[in-house]
Amino acid sequence: VAKTLRIVAYAVNGAGAGHLQRLTAICRWVRRYAAFCGAPCEVFFLTSSEADGFLFHEGFASFKLPSKTSVTAAGIDKLAYLALAKQWVWHSLGLLRPDVLLVDTFPNGSFGELVSALDLARARVFVYRPVKDEVARRADFQAMLPLYDRILVPEYEETAGVVLPAKVAPAVRFTGPAMVRERSELRPRGEARARFGIPEGRLGVLVSAGGGGDPTAEADLRIATGLLLAHEEVHVVVAAGPLYRGGRWGGERLAWVSEPALAEWLPAFDFAVAAAGYNTVLELMHAGVPAVFLPQEKVADEQDRRAAAAANAGAAEMVEGAGERVSLGAAIARFLDAGERERASEKARALVPKNHARDAAAEILELVLAPHEVAAAEAAVSDDLLEVARSLGVPLEGFFELVHALVPAVTAKAASRSERKRGREASDAAIGLARRAVEIGVPPIHALRLLVPLQRKLLRGSLAERLESAERILSALVPFSEWGAALHLVKSLSPAREAAGLEVAAEVETFLVRFAGERGGLARAVAALAAAETGDPRSLRALVGGRG
Amino acid sequence: VTYGVGDFRARAAVRLTELRQARSHLAELRRLHNSRREDLVRRRSAATSELTTALLPAFTAEALAAAARITGFPGLVQRDFPGQAGAERQRLTARIAEIEADPRYRDRRLLRDPAVGTLTRAIAELQEFREPFAVVAERCRHPRLGRLLESGYGTSRYAVPFWRMSYYGDWKAGDEILERFPGRKDFAAVLAEYLEAVRTLETYDPKLHSLKAEFTAGVQIEEELGASRQGLESLVPRHLGLARIALEEHLEALPQESLADVLANVPALEILVKKWLGLDHQVRYLDSIRDLQVEPACLDVDTEIRKLEKDSLKYQRPKNAGATFPAETFEKRFDPSRTEKLRKRVSRIGEAQERVYVFDRYDRGSFATEFLWWDLVTDGRVDGDFIPEVRSHHAAHPGSGVGRTLDDGDLAAAGAAVSSSGTSRDGFLDAS
């Protein structure tokens, strides 16, 4: 059994949700790639975010400590809390002893405690989301960077604008933006609009305050909803954010939502009026939703710079002046026009063409797993694989098993040197095989259950022959519709080292013909095979043609 | 501040105890190395046999040609193993026919039957005849017998005067021989009996020797026939074994990445090859740990023990009772951190040995040039840069391998920067 890989994501930098989402986006891919590599992976979040319900929704375990906001509200002495929080982080890391410690935003932690704790991790990764110059240039910020094995900048190099000491250059990777959902994971527009009750013919407009914790959030929401509802064709959906504690108001064509993973529902919206936090901007642009951005003032984040970049690209409008937003009406008017929206949507997609969370995950895993294994995972776990797993409603891990079972059949001489090519070819073959299985009538839930053991039995023959053999055997099983018995039959075949896949397929077909049309015919076939001491392919041959 | 002899002896005793403990742990690691290496070598040998059997399942020209093609080893065909086997078969068959026609084999029962064989009986009869004479000759055996015969003792020819010492020596020896023949009056009677026995044995023994040689030659030819027949029966397995050994030598000489080409033809063998390669690396790593870690550590500990014992003895002498030691050198010599470092060193060696030995995830290996077995075997948790192969790989592939230890200089700079900067006005940063 492979050793469990333990990853601790340090998401302690306030009550907000941005860093949590960014780390979640990366850790989702870490988990996928590690599963593909056969390395069980435990991810723990240490967080002070008050939006930690999001982690539960995404299936991550978390240890929570109170945010500064909640400590203040609870009347707890700040110095006592600071001492406690430092000790809590040290002890947590000491107990968890992570293989990888993943830190976001502040390299020395929120309490200045990490300098004494980094050696508790086998590898240290800093996710360097661009921050304000005055924060990035602090001596302690810069001095901490060399202590990290990898510095991941989740932006494109040409636009990142991060401050780095020269000596850390070998550890820096500009991975590109990281978001919680791939384009292939976004819900279809119709399904998404139905979820929010947006009627046919109306413009769906998202109004978002990001995490919702900003003091100006309520004022901005009121201004935006007021201006939008003045237009009869608009249906407003307000996502105030998990940290929003302001007032709520009702009205016709107005709905409040609290989706933990709003990103996958973004296709519901024609445009958005939103704060300009890292995740909000990138998710909207990635989903092709034009937006009017209302930058908020933050300690470390430069929301105005990010919003300006989107506006300059023609994908968005930016309205400054928190709490007033005097030119918001004009900005909204631009996106009421369908042509403008369409043009802006295209520009938004071009601005954030890809989600690079997987690249960041690969960089992290290369610190603790063999690079060739990670390369194979990168090649095999493609968008197509995600899409087919989702459309068939089967777990991704099942596909990984099928890909691994097919890898030995990828025989090209050059490919055998490249794990990446082999992984990709096997992945494509797995996708094609699963789709074909469903097309010929195997229920999706049973398709992978049958295909994985079947591929482990068909050891001889080229990849194409093995795929054809599997398809022929499944086709022979379909008429019976006895999936339990089918699985039993497949598992009872022993790995046919001496028989080619196509021969085995032909023998299974011939054998099953005898039982066609009988009630419980497949169960009888299994019993007949068992009676002939199956497990040995020669028994099957004896039953088929008496050649034994 | 200085330290006295009392301090020295007290601290030296403690340090010696610690050193001896470390030495005992290292000895245990040595012992473990031997048993673990033996086990890994046995498993590697089984894996090799499994692999070559899978590559060359039968001793046919087709199977040899297929294995040669798969492994890119033309020697398997060029060395003409079936031809060699055919020639040996021919030679053995001819020899068997020759032996079967040989009268010594054909009449084996007649000649060498234990009960009625003519040779057996002739030998038995001759031995029976010579036995009484052999007993007489044996009874007369004496260191001085040759001289007695030469000087004619017991006969009128004996002319040694009584004042010579040899006269009494001859007399004594004659009496000793005579004592072995009760009933004989004097040495002359014994002498006659002895000379008669010797003459008879000289007649019988050449004949007996010839019969025995004939018997042995017959037995040898029977044995040769058995061996030839056995050789014929084991001909195919033996030559198959030789071909597999040649194949094994070829595979061992192949660079790791070339094995990928072998597998490109037979992907079903991938796991067998990986297991074989993995075990081979485990054995090599275990040897490196012993040679480059265990042995140098033993040497260091032994040297320090010897020096400490010598100094302890020196400062027990009355003339050194007043010796003093400067604080700096004394503290440096008995610095407790040295004990801790030694303990960690021994522990690291033990961990490395343990990790290398217990590894069994061969399926996760690779034939890629950038792949290093050490990183997989130790799960990247043991610094293997003491092994030249590992060090050069890590130099060529920066970023791979074991987790980096934090640089003391970087850590100190960060600590200084943090303490001089302060975190924020109220002690913590909040981005929200």
What is the fold's blueprint, element by element?
The complex is a heterodimer of chains A (about 550) and B (about 425).
Chain A: E1 5-11, H1 18-36, E2 41-47, H2 53-58, E3 61-64, H3 68-74, H4 78-96, E4 100-104, E5 123-127, H5 133-136, H6 139-144, E6 150-153, H7 157-160, E7 172-174, H8 189-196, E8 203-208, H9 217-229, E9 234-239, E10 254-256, E11 271-274, H10 278-287, E12 291-293, H11 303-312, E13 316-318, H12 328-335, H13 338-351, H14 357-365, H15 371-380, H16 383-392, H17 396-406, H18 419-439, H19 444-457, H20 463-477, H21 483-492, H22 501-513, H23 521-531, H24 537-545
Parallel strand pairs in A: 1-2, 1-4, 2-3, 4-5, 5-6, 6-7, 8-9, 8-11, 9-10, 11-12, 12-13
Helix pairs in contact in A: 1-14, 1-15, 10-13, 14-15, 15-18, 16-18, 17-18, 17-19, 18-19, 18-20, 19-20, 19-21, 20-22, 21-23, 22-24
Chain B: E1 2-4, H1 5-55, H2 61-71, H3 75-78, H4 81-101, H5 103-106, H6 108-112, H7 118-139, H8 145-151, H9 165-179, H10 187-233, H11 235-253, H12 258-265, H13 270-314, E2 324-326, H14 327-333, H15 336-358, H16 373-377, H17 388-396, H18 408-421
Antiparallel strand pairs in B: 1-2
Helix pairs in contact in B: 1-11, 1-13, 1-15, 4-10, 4-11, 7-10, 13-15
In short:
The complex is a heterodimer of chains A (548) and B (432). With 548 residues, chain A is α/β, with parallel strands linked by helices.
Would you mind describing this structure in some detail?
Chain A has helices spanning 18-36, 53-58, 68-74, 78-96, 133-136, 139-144, 157-160, 189-196, 217-229, 278-287, 303-312, 328-335, 338-351, 357-365, 371-380, 383-392, 396-406, 419-439, 444-457, 463-477, 483-492, 501-513, 521-531, 537-545, and strands at residues 5-11, 41-47, 61-64, 100-104, 123-127, 150-153, 172-174, 203-208, 234-239, 254-256, 271-274, 291-293, 316-318. In chain A, helix 20 (463-477) runs parallel beside helix 22 (501-513). Chain A has 548 residues and is α/β, with parallel strands linked by helices. In chain A, strand 2, helix 2 and strand 3 (61-64) form a beta-alpha-beta unit. In chain A, the strands form 2 sheets. In chain A, strands 3-2-1-4-5-6-7 form a 7-stranded parallel beta sheet, sandwiched between helices. Chain B is mainly α. In chain B, strands 1-2 form a two-stranded antiparallel ribbon. The radius of gyration of chain B is 41 Å and the shape is flat. The model of chain B has no long low-confidence stretch (mean pLDDT 88).
